[in-house]
Every structure is written in structure tokens, then in C-alpha cells.
């Protein structure tokens, strides 16, 4: 039986346990991924054909760019459920511009989409950081408010396939050197992931994100600019949702005010949470979230191959989120008990 | 005149240093103290807004003064009101339940399956459906209390999961199925609850159900031990636990209640629309939370009233009516509600700081 | 060695919390290159003084001078900029980040044209700092799961990295093993020799005497004096800390009989908190539990009350074994707990006085479940009168009351439950002398009515005046038991600090 002081051994052991558990987490996702693939192969032996692999890979960009932002938000102990609406807003506005000005530069359009998203994200950030409205409430409200904006701006009309520039659509069809397997959209997503990692790992702001989530009081006392950093992560998430809006247009070839991005926030949160980002805040890795996106993309395609995609999606997302949260909570509880006896 | 009115006069032996002691010189009667407390309540703002909305609506459109029209409109979103009753308990206790609308859809869907696919008599179907609602709520509660998971994360997951299960059960179809002939329908006595009126009046049955439930559960909230416990838990759960309150049991019950009411709302919606689909009430959790918060309930817990929720619900109805009459599209209406939610919290924040 | 240039001086500091004076006209000064001990009982004001210097609190009156110039320290941030660092009792760390980052967070070294975080430089500097401190820690280790001792070291490395000239250490040795303490002291000496001014707050007098160049004694918020440890004995310091006319306090009479044991505890243990706790409390008896902060007393109380799980042990009430898993069970057995932390555990601050008072007993007060306002008011008024609670109205939110009156509300609520056993945790902390006396008188009355009282207290006079028996805990274990006659301040302190006392 350990007393307060005779406890050095068990504490050092727990330290290693904690490090091991975080590596275990990423391994766990890979394991889960393998299981899903094996399961799909069992039903459909030709599951891993180039078409399916490409489908999986195409799923990832949309998910991953937003997930990078959402991950940061969740690390700071917040949440953003308005990303689907922001995606729709950026998509529809830029889509309408393409429709009315067919020669509009697609790169400019992309930048515009990102800026629009950032703007909406900034609204969230300001309300949460300075007005102190709880994140769930803020983003629940903006989820509707922004979706309403989508309708107001678009007049309810969708942007048809023939209005989306071919060059943009090709981002989801062809990759560098004409390779079809890894379209440009995937490359873009990979770049975003790398940038996210660089930000989180190599900038003070990025490190502050972890600090704020890990111990908000300590962060305050250490002079970390909590409000500005909080504002920043929501703005970034908005910007990423904006980019995703453009990628949506590229992938699907149209933008519909009533469909585009609706319910997407759940997929994103599921990917982030299963990717090892703790809902209690303070931890999360780009690699884990990227794996989580891959996992979710694979699950989606597997479901489609099994013919049950659309109807099973929601339930799967819900289950995945619950599973991840439960596992995290149990780990947290055991660690706390071992280190403090609470 | 009781001793309560005269303040305790400090004896010379005790140096008076407390902040409360400064008011010793100004005795206040308990009646005036209670009056003051009543006047400062946030519900008053809601009532004021309600009157304002009504006046504005009446000025802008003659429909507003048509009582039957308004009353009929209350039925269109009565499920929000019913779920808001449960949500009031949840938020006052310091928790949140995002899965209410999904539970509604799942219960409605299961009702359809029970009746059509499994030929369960409608009466039994209703009972089983209500039980299912309670179970769905209980699951949320168990995850929060037994597994100690955060309510936000849990109900976000069940928001997806419950509706997801409904989706799996009926796909994109409905009960009765789209392909069926017009003869295969729910029983007459069950459908069209919104077309049932109190004899001799234009008051629709759903509104009555809502008001009766609000009254009963409001009394429980405000005048019973259980209700006091709910407020205590929302004020300071640790202190409530240290005071001997069975906090886990109370929370479990509240979530179960919320689930039950969602189930009831599901049955009403299916009755109104004569059909059960997996996407019923999609996104309505926003309206439910808005109704509760707009009614003066503090999102952080510990403060709020059923009266406020009822008034806020009526306010939302007026708003929706007004917007409907002004031909504002559904999605734009949603935008307004969303904005309203945020504004309500902001105002609540500011007045909270002023109060301190 | 000690450079006599004054580094920091406080003059006439006055501080109060919620109507209770915590520091009165405190003059304190510290030189460069010295380790200056700050001692006093719990509640004497040591932590508060440190926090004021570190910018966490602002004094109601008084000035602070740094290097002879008056300064204002409105926030910890400003304090850091001025070179003042506070090492907290409970280290403020980021569990998911590693050691190096915990040291440098917010101020990581930057490099390159891109101005990116220079991890290599950070780890190097962290290594250097840890070496300077003589600490055997890897900069790459994660903080999660680290011992308190190591966490403190990291916090100190952090302070050093900010070029702290003045280091305030609040009970740093509370959770350390003797060898860890030696490491800490070695590091402190190193820093002192380099010119850092260190304020060392500790209850452990043997440590004070080992490491400090000077020691200031606070008592009841007043600075009693500054001494050189080489020219004074431990007993004299204790007397300075403790000495006050005991007549201001009520003494428990022995007029009544002490009956059978009501509460019996055998071998109670909880990992990381306490071990092998056995005690009993008899009807009509007050058992005082003394010990330093962190000795585990409150944890034992919480465990008895069901607010903390136990790993082993048996609790019996009135001779029958009971299983108490939550406070509600304890209440059902007639056992109540008046918590140490009034504001967070004892009261619901925004609720009214009568709501607070009736909360634990609603089920017996109104068995039907229907609230009865008039009955609640009557019952509340009864106790307001009995305990002499000063208030404006019983519908007042309880947070508007003074500390003493708040404590009376807490007591009222539990007395209403007609308990058999009362566990009081620091019952008179933070309340004024008058209220203290009233609480003590009440305790005496309750004991004479047959209640069994277990009283945790860090105030020696209170322990000595009120207890029929005294138990002393240290680091999770019971180290001494005294009868009323055997108990003296020195013996209790010695048992609490692990010293061996020279009995004269």
C-alpha cells in the first residue's frame, strides 16, 4: 500500500504508462482501420480496387482540412458545430461567383472561400473568447444563422454542375503528373495537414493552444494570451471550412444550399475524436486526426460497397464518438486514480 | 410582526465586521424582499418581449389578431415546447441534452414500425413508444452518471446515434411507406391530434397537453423537494452532494424525463403529420435550447423557471408566425432563431454581471 | 554572503477577505542572497503575504518597495516582469506537455528567419537549468504522472528561466520525502549563493532552522518578529507562533460524562492519501485532529463521510459496521461533515439562507415532498436565533453574509439533521474572534448533549482548548495520540512535524 511519500516508484511507472497510452492510441486507430478493411474484404473481396481507394482518398480532403481546425478547437476544450454551415456558405458564394463570372480565377476563388470562412469563424471566435458565450451554444446558433445566410445569399438556388469550372473539378480527378490515384485535392489536404502540424508544433501560438486546453488557469497565470489564441482557433477552423467548401464544389461538381455541408460537423468531430483528440482538452496530434479521417473515409466507402452507406452513416458516427469519448474517460480516470488517489 | 422583521442587534461582545452586517440598520420586511426579487427576474424581460412581439405582429398583420389562427400555429411546433419542458430541468441542473430531437425521431420511427411492421395494436404501441423514449433518456443519463462522461459529448454522440438508428430502421422511407395505398394508415383516433379541440373553443389539444405538462412539471420543479434538488445540483453539484442529495439519481431521472418527453413529442409529431420519418424535427434541438434560455434559464445552471420556458416558447411561436406570415423561408427563420439564441445568452451574460 | 542591499520590502500591508482581517500592518523585508523563512500557524497569513508579493492579490493598504522604489503589482504577469516568482503549493503545470515546455511555455526560444520554436535550444536550455538546480529530470519527460516533487522542480526551473530575483516558495516541502527535501535545499543554497532572494514558507520548523538565514514569524496576521535561527530555539519560535491569551477562547468543560464509542474506525486506507487510520470517538467527546497541511486529515474526513472512496478499512457507528459510499449514506447513519472549504462544499452561495439550512433535511422536514415555505422559515429562524446569526433576511443569498455567519449557517443546516457524529474540518477558519467563541460554545453544548465530535483543526489553541483527546497526523498516518492532560502545543507540533522533542 503506497503512502504519499513512498510512492516514487509507482509515479515514475505511471509516467511511462501515460506516454505508452498515447502511442497506443494511434496504434489503436490503425488497428481499427485494418479491422474495417478486413471486414470489407470479407464481404467484398475486391474491396481494395483502385476505384475504391480513390474514393477513400477523395473522402479525406474535405474531412481533413476542417478536422485540422476542429482539432485545435477541441484541444482548447471548445467545440464548433457550425463548420458545415460555413462550408456551405463559402461554397455557395464562390460557386455563385463562378456561375456569374465563368472566367473567374479558381485560385482567387479558393482564397476568397478561405477568407469568407475565416470571417464566419471570427464571429464564433469573438463571441466565445470575448463575450464568453459557451462554445456549444455559440456554434449551435451560428450553425443555423450561417445556414440561413446561405439561403438568403443564394436565393435558394443551387449552383449547377455546368457552372462549376472544369479546372476546379479536375482537382478531384487528377493529381500531379496526371496520376489519377492521388488527385490534387488530396495533395492540398496533405499540405494543410503539414501546415497544421507546423503551426501546432513550431509556433508559440500553436503551443499555447495545448497549454490553454491543458490547464486554462495556469495558462492565464503564465501570461499566455488566452483570448486571442481562442479567437484564433475558431477563425482558423472557419477558414478551413471555407476551403472545404471549395473542395466540395470540386468533388461533387455542384453546391446546393440545402445539402452542402449539412450534418458534416458530426463527421468532422467523429474523425477528430477517434483520432485521439481528448474531449477534455490539452492533447491531440495531426497524425492521429489524419488517421481518424482515413478511418472514417474507409468506413464510409466500406458502407457504400456494402450498399448501406447512407442509412448507416449517422449511427456509425454517433457510435464512433461515443466509443472514443468513453475510452478517453476511462483512461483519464485510471491515470488520475493512480497519481492522486482521487 | 414576527421576530424575523427585526434584525439581530449585535451585542457589544461581538465586533461586527461582515459585509451583510452593514445592512443591519435597514430592516426589510420579507414581503418587500420577495417583491424586489420578483421584479428583478429575467422572466419579466421575456414577458415584455412577448407583449412586444404580439403588438408588433398585430400591427404588421391582421392575422395576429385572429385567435384561432394563432392557436393553430402553436400546434406546428408544439413538440419544441414539450421537449423544452424536459430541457428546462436538464439545463437548470447544469447539464445539456443535444439528443432530444433525435430521440423524438427514433421513437416516432419505432412507433411506425411497431404498428405497421409488427402489427402491434396502436394503444400498446403508444405505451411502448413512451417507454422507449424514457429508455433513450436513461441511456444518456447512465452514461453521464455511471460512466462520468461529459453530457455535451454524450448527447452529441446520441444525437447522431439515435437518429442514425432511425435511419437504419426505415431508411429514407416512412411509415406508412410511400409505396403503400392510402388505406394503410395509422388509426383514426391517433392521427390529427392537432385538429382536436377543446369542445366549444379553438384551443387545440396539443397546446393543452403542453400547458398541462408544463403546469405539472413546473409545480414539481418549483414546489417539491426534488425540484429544489435540481436547482441545488445546478448551483454547485459538489456542495449538493455534500449536503446528502442523491445527485446521481436525480440526474439520471432528469435525463430519463427528457427522453420520455422527447418520446411523447415524437408520438405527437407522427400524429400531426400522419407519418413517421427518420428526419423528423431535424435540427430542432436548437429551438428547444433557445426556448429554455430565452425564458431566463441560466445556461450554466442553477437558475430558471418553467414559467419562463412557457413564455419563451410562446414568444418563439409568435416569431415563427410572424415570419411565416411575412413569407420568410424556413431556413431564414432558422437563422433568426440561431441569432436569437446567441443574443439571449449575451444578454443573460451582461445582466448576470450587472447583478453581481 | 548575504548582500545587505534590500531587495524587497513591504510596509504596512493590510489585507482582508470577506470582512475578516488576514494581514494587519505587516512589515516584511528580504535581502538579496538570503533564504528568509516565513512561519506561522494556518491562517496566520503567510500564503496571503506571498500571494500579494507575487501579484495574485492586491493589498487593501500598504506599499511594496523593490530596490527602494515603490512598485505596484497588479497581476502575476507584472510580478514576473519584476523578477518575482511564486512556487505554488500545488504546482501549476500542463500535464500533457513535457518538462521543457512547462518551463518555457509562452516564452519558447525562437530561431530562424521563420521565427519558429527552437526545440533543440529549448531542450538544451532546459537541461542546463535542471543541471543548475541539480535535478535529475529529462527535459523530454511528460509532466503527467510526475511526482509532486518533480513538478515543483519544473516550476522552479521555470522561475529561474525568467531570471527570478525573488523566489517565493509556499510550502514546497509539504509532499516531499526527506531525500527530496535535501535535493531541494541544495538547490536553494546554490540559488542563494548566486544572489537570489528566497522566501521559504514552511510549517516544518526543523527545515526552517536548517536552511534559513532569517525567519519572520506571523501570528493572526501580524508580524511578531524577525529572528536569526542560530540565536533562537525551536521552542521559542513555537511560542512566538502560538502565544496568545487563551482566554479569548472557550474551554470545553468536563461537566458531562463521556459515553460509549459512537464512531469507530479501523485500518482505514486510501492509496496516495492515508494509511492505516484507526480511531474512535465517544458520545460527549471531542477528539481533535492536529497536523500540517497535506497530512491527510481532510481526506480521512471525506472518506468517512463518503465523499472519497476507500481501499481498506472498517467504519462502525454505534457498534455496527456500516458501508458509506456517498454523503447521503453517512447522513443516514447520523454522521455529518462540516467541510473545510465552506464556499465550495459547505454552502450553495447563491441560494438563500433558509434554502441552505433546510437542504439536507428536506426529506424529513417535508416527507410528502411538497415544500412548505412557512415551515422552512420557522425552522430556519429557530436556528438563526439559537446560533445568533446576523442577517438581513433569511431570504438573503448566503454569500452576502460574513464568514462567521456563513459558518453558523453551515452548522445550522447540519444540526437540523440531529446527528450523532459531527466531523468538523477547520470549524473556525476565517471567522472573527467573536464568532469563534460562539462556535466553540456551541460545540461544548453539543458534546454535553451526547454528540460525538471529531474536530480537525490547524489552530493549536483550539485543539488544546476543545479536545478531550488529540490525534496527530503526519503524511497520511497517525503519529501521536494524547489525552487532554498530555497534550501541549510543543508536543503536538513536534508530532506534526516529525521532530523529536527534547522533553524538559
Helix-strand layout with pairing:
The complex is a heterotrimer of chains A (342), B (356) and C (504).
Chain A lengths: L7 H36 L6 H26 L7 H18 L5 H24 L5 H20 L11 H5 L13 H19 L1 H11 L1 H6 L4 H27 L11 H11 L11 H20 L3 H32 L2
Chain B lengths: L29 H10 L2 H19 L6 H10 L1 H15 L7 H18 L4 H24 L5 H20 L3 E2 L29 H19 L1 H11 L1 H6 L4 H27 L2 E2 L7 H10 L11 H20 L4 H26 L1
Antiparallel strand pairs in B: 1-2
Helix pairs in contact in B: 2-13, 4-8, 4-9, 4-11, 4-12, 4-13, 5-6, 5-7, 5-11, 6-7, 6-11, 8-9, 12-13, 12-14
Chain C lengths: L2 E15 L2 E13 L2 E5 L6 H8 L7 E6 L2 E3 L4 H6 L2 E4 L11 H6 L5 E2 L4 E2 L1 H14 L15 H14 L4 E5 L7 H16 L3 E5 L3 H7 L2 E6 L2 E6 L6 H9 L18 E10 L3 E9 L3 E6 L5 H9 L6 E6 L2 E3 L4 H6 L2 E4 L3 H5 L6 H6 L3 H4 L7 H15 L15 H13 L5 E5 L7 H16 L3 E5 L3 H7 L2 E6 L2 E7 L5 H9 L7
Parallel strand pairs in C: 3-10, 3-11, 6-9, 9-10, 15-20, 15-21, 18-19, 19-20
Antiparallel strand pairs in C: 1-2, 1-4, 4-5, 7-8, 11-12, 13-14, 13-16, 16-17, 21-22
Helical stretch count of chain A?
13
Tell me the CATH topology of chain B. Answer: ABC transporter involved in vitamin B12 uptake, BtuC
Largest sheet of chain B: 2 strands, antiparallel
Q: Unreliable segments of chain A (pLDDT under 50, ≥5 consecutive)?
A: 1-12
Rg over CA atoms of chain A: 21 Å
Tell me what you see in this structure.
The complex is a heterotrimer of chains A (342), B (356) and C (504). With 342 residues, chain A is mostly helical. Chain A has a single domain, classed as ABC transporter involved in vitamin B12 uptake, BtuC (Orthogonal Bundle), CATH 1.10.3470. Chain A has helices spanning 8-43, 50-75, 83-100, 106-129, 135-154, 166-170, 184-202, 204-214, 216-221, 226-252, 264-274, 286-305, 309-340. Chain A is globular, with a radius of gyration of 21 Å. The model of chain A is unreliable at 1-12 (pLDDT under 50). Chain B is mostly helical. Chain B has a single domain (67-355), classed as ABC transporter involved in vitamin B12 uptake, BtuC (Orthogonal Bundle), CATH 1.10.3470. Chain B has a two-stranded antiparallel sheet with strand order 1-2. Chain B is globular. Mean pLDDT of chain B is 85; it is low at 1-28. Chain C is of the alpha/beta class. Chain C folds into 2 domains: 3-243, P-loop containing nucleotide triphosphate hydrolases (Rossmann fold), CATH 3.40.50.300; 247-334 and 419-497, Rossmann fold. In chain C, 34% of the residues lie in helices and 26% in strands. Chain C is built from 18 helices and 22 strands. Chain C has helices at residues 46-53, 76-81, 99-104, 119-132, 148-161, 178-193, 205-211, 234-242, 297-305, 327-332, 342-346, 353-358, 362-365, 373-387, 403-415, 433-448, 460-466, 489-497; strands spanning 3-17, 20-32, 35-39, 61-66, 69-71, 84-87, 110-111, 116-117, 166-170, 197-201, 214-219, 222-227, 261-270, 274-282, 286-291, 312-317, 320-322, 335-338, 421-425, 452-456, 469-474, 477-483. Chain C has a 6-stranded mixed sheet with strand order 6-9-10-3-11-12, sandwiched between helices. In chain C, strands 18-19-20-15-21-22 form a 6-stranded mixed sheet, sandwiched between helices. A 4-stranded antiparallel sheet of chain C has the order 2-1-4-5, with helices on one face. The chains are: A mainly alpha (342), B mainly alpha (356), C alpha/beta (504).
Amino acid at each position: 500500500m503506497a503512502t504519499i511519500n513512498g510512492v516514487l516508484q509507482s509515479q515514475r511507472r505511471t509516467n511511462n504508462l501515460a506516454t505508452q497510452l498515447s502511442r497506443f492510441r494511434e496504434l489503436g486507430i490503425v488497428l481499427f482501420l485494418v479491422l474495417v478493411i478486413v471486414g470489407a474484404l470479407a464481404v467484398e473481396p475486391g474491396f481494395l480496387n483502385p476505384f475504391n481507394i480513390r474514393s477513400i482518398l477523395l473522402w479525406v480532403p474535405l474531412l481533413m482540412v476542417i478536422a485540422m481546425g476542429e482539432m485545435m478547437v477541441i484541444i482548447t476544450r471548445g467545440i464548433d458545430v457550425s463548420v458545415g454551415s460555413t462550408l456551405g456558405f463559402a461554397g455557395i458564394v464562390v460557386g455563385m461567383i463562378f456561375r456569374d463570372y465563368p472566367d473567374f480565377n479558381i485560385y482567387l476563388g479558393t482564397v476568397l472561400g478561405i477568407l469568407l470562412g475565416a470571417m464566419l469563424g471570427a464571429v464564433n471566435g469573438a463571441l466565445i473568447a470575448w463575450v464568453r458565450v459557451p462554445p456549444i451554444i455559440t456554434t449551435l446558433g451560428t450553425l443555423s444563422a450561417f445556414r440561413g445566410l446561405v439561403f438568403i445569399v443564394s436565393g435558394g438556388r443551387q449552383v449547377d454542375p455546368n457552372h462549376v469550372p472544369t479546372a476546379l473539378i479536375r482537382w478531384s480527378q487528377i493529381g500531379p503528373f496526371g496520376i489519377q490515384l492521388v488527385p490534387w485535392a488530396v495533395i492540398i489536404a496533405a499540405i494543410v495537414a503539414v501546415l497544421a502540424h507546423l503551426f501546432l508544433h513550431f509556433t508559440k501560438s500553436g503551443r499555447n493552444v495545448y497549454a490553454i486546453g491543458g490547464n486554462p488557469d495556469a495558462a492565464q497565470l503564465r501570461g499566455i494570451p488566452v483570448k486571442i489564441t481562442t479567437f484564433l482557433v475558431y477563425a482558423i477552423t472557419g477558414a478551413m471550412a471555407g476551403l472545404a467548401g471549395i473542395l466540395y464544389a470540386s468533388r461533387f461538381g455542384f453546391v446546393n444550399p440545402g445539402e452542402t455541408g449539412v450534418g458534416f460537423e458530426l463527421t468532422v468531430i467523429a474523425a477528430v475524436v477517434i483520432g485521439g483528440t481528448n474531449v477534455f482538452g490539452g492533447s491531440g496530434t495531426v497524425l492521429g486526426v489524419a488517421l481518424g479521417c482515413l478511418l472514417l473515409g474507409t468506413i464510409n466507402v466500406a458502407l457504400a460497397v456494402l450498399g448501406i452507406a447512407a442509412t448507416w452513416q449517422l449511427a456509425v458516427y454517433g457510435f464512433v464518438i461515443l466509443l472514443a469519448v468513453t475510452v478517453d474517460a476511462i483512461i483519464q480516470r485510471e491515470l488520475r486514480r493512480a497519481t492522486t488517489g482521487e | 410582526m414576527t421576530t424575523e422583521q427585526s434584525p439581530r442587534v449585535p451585542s457589544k461582545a461581538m465586533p461586527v465586521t461582515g459585509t451583510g452586517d452593514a445592512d443591519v440598520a435597514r430592516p426589510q420586511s420579507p414581503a418587500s424582499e420577495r417583491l424586489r426579487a420578483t421584479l428583478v427576474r429575467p422572466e419579466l424581460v421575456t414577458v415584455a418581449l412577448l407583449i412586444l412581439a404580439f403588438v408588433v405582429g398585430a400591427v404588421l398583420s391582421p392575422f395576429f389578431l385572429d385567435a384561432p389562427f394563432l392557436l393553430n400555429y402553436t400546434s406546428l411546433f408544439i413538440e419544441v415546447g414539450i421537449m423544452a419542458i424536459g430541457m428546462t430541468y436538464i439545463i437548470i441542473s447544469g447539464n445539456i441534452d443535444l439528443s432530444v430531437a433525435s430521440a423524438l425521431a427514433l421513437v416516432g420511427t419505432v412507433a411506425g414500425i411497431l404498428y405497421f411492421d409488427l402489427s402491434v395494436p396502436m394503444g400498446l404501441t403508444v405505451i411502448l413508444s413512451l417507454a422507449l423514449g424514457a429508455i433513450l433518456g436513461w441511456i444518456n443519463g447512465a452514461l453521464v452518471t455511471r460512466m462520468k462522461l461529459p453530457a455535451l459529448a454524450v448527447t452529441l454522440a446520441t444525437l447522431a446515434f439515435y437518429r442514425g438508428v432511425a435511419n437504419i430502421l426505415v431508411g429514407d422511407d416512412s411509415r406508412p411507406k410511400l409505396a403503400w395505398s392510402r388505406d394503410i394508415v395509422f388509426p383514426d383516433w391517433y392521427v390529427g391530434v392537432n385538429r382536436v379541440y377543446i369542445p366549444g373553443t379553438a384551443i387545440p389539444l396539443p397546446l393543452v397537453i403542453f400547458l398541462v405538462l408544463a403546469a405539472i412539471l413546473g409545480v414539481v420543479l418549483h414546489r417539491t423537494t426534488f425540484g429544489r434538488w435540481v436547482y441545488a445540483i445546478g448551483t454547485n453539484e459538489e456542495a449538493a452532494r455534500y449536503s446528502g442529495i442523491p445527485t446521481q439519481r436525480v440526474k439520471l431521472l432528469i435525463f430519463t424525463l427528457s427522453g420520455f418527453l422527447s418520446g411523447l413529442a415524437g408520438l405527437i409529431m407522427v400524429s400531426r403529420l400522419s407519418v413517421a420519418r427518420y428526419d423528423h424535427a431535424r435540427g430542432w434541438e436548437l429551438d428547444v435550447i433557445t426556448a429554455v434560455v430565452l425564458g431566463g434559464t441560466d445556461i450554466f445552471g442553477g437558475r430558471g423557471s418553467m414559467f419562463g420556458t412557457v413564455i419563451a416558447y410562446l414568444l418563439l411561436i409568435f416569431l415563427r408566425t410572424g415570419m411565416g406570415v411575412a413569407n420568410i423561408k424556413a431556413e431564414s427563420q432558422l437563422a433568426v432563431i440561431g441569432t436569437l439564441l446567441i443574443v439571449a445568452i449575451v444578454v443573460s451574460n451582461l445582466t448576470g454581471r450587472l447583478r453581481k | 554572503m548575504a548582500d545587505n542591499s534590500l531587495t524587497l520590502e513591504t510596509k504596512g500591508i493590510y489585507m482582508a477577505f470577506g470582512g475578516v482581517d488576514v494581514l494587519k500592518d505587516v512589515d516584511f523585508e528580504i535581502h538579496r542572497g538570503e533564504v528568509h523563512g516565513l512561519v506561522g500557524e494556518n491562517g496566520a497569513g503567510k500564503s496571503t503575504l506571498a500571494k500579494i508579493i507575487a501579484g495574485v492579490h492586491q493589498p487593501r493598504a500598504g506599499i511594496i518597495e523593490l530596490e527602494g522604489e515603490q512598485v505596484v503589482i497588479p497581476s502575476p504577469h507584472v510580478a514576473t516582469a519584476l523578477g518575482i516568482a511564486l512556487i505554488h503549493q500545488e504546482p501549476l503545470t500542463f500535464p500533457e506537455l513535457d518538462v521543457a515546455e512547462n518551463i518555457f511555455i509562452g516564452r519558447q526560444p525562437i530561431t530562424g528567419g521563420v521565427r519558429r520554436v527552437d526545440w533543440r535550444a529549448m531542450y538544451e536550455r532546459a537541461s542546463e537549468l535542471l543541471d543548475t538546480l541539480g535535478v535529475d529530470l529529462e527535459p523530454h519527460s511528460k509532466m503527467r504522472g510526475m511526482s509532486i516533487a518533480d513538478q515543483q522542480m519544473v516550476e522552479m526551473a521555470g522561475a529561474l528561466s525568467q531570471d527570478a530575483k525573488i523566489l517565493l516558495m509556499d510550502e514546497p516541502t509539504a509532499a516531499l520525502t526527506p531525500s527530496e527535501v535535501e535535493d531541494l535545499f541544495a538547490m536553494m543554497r546554490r540559488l542563494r549563493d548566486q544572489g537570489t532572494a528566497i522566501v521559504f514558507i514552511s510549517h516544518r520548523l526543523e527545515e526552517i532552522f536548517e536552511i534559513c538565514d532569517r525567519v519572520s514569524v506571523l501570528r493572526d496576521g501580524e508580524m511578531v518578529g524577525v529572528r536569526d535561527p542560530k540565536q533562537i530555539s525551536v521552542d521559542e519560535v513555537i511560542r512566538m507562533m502560538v502565544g496568545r491569551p487563551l482566554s479569548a477562547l472557550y474551554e470545553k468543560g468536563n461537566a458531562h460524562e463521556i459515553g460509549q464509542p459512537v464512531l469507530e474506525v479501523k485500518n482505514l486506507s486510501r492509496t496516495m492519501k492515508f494509511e492505516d487510520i484507526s480511531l474512535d470517538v465517544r458520545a460527549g467527546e471531542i477528539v481533535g485532529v492536529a497536523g500540517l497541511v497535506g497530512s491527510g486529515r481532510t481526506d480521512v474526513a471525506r472518506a468517512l463521510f463518503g465523499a472519497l472512496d476507500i481501499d481498506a478499512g472498517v467504519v462502525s457507528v454505534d457498534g455496527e459496521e456500516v458501508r458509506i459510499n456517498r454523503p447521503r449514506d453517512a447522513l443516514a447513519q447520523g454522521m455529518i461533515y462540516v467541510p473545510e472549504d465552506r464556499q465550495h462544499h459547505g454552502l450553495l452561495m447563491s441560494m438563500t439562507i433558509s434554502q441552505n439550512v433546510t437542504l439536507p433535511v428536506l426529506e424529513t422536514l417535508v416527507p410528502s415532498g411538497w415544500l412548505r415555505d412557512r415551515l422552512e422559515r420557522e425552522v430556519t429562524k429557530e436556528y438563526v436565533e439559537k446560533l445568533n446569526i446576523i442577517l438581513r433576511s433569511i431570504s438573503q443569498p448566503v454569500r452576502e453574509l460574513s464568514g462567521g455567519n456563513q459558518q453558523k449557517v453551515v452548522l445550522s443546516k447540519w444540526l437540523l439533521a440531529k446527528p450523532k457524529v459531527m466531523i468538523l474540518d477547520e470549524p473556525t477558519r476565517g471567522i472573527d474572534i467573536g464568532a469563534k467563541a460562539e462556535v466553540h460554545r456551541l460545540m461544548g453544548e453539543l458534546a454535553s448533549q451526547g454528540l460525538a465530535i471529531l474536530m480537525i483543526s490547524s489552530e493549536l489553541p483550539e485543539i488544546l482548548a476543545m479536545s478531550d483527546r488529540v490525534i496527530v497526523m503526519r503524511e497520511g498516518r497517525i503519529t501521536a495520540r494524547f489525552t487532554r492532560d498530555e497534550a501541549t502545543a510543543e508536543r503536538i507540533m513536534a508530532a506534526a512535524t516529525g521532530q523529536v522533542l527534547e522533553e524538559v
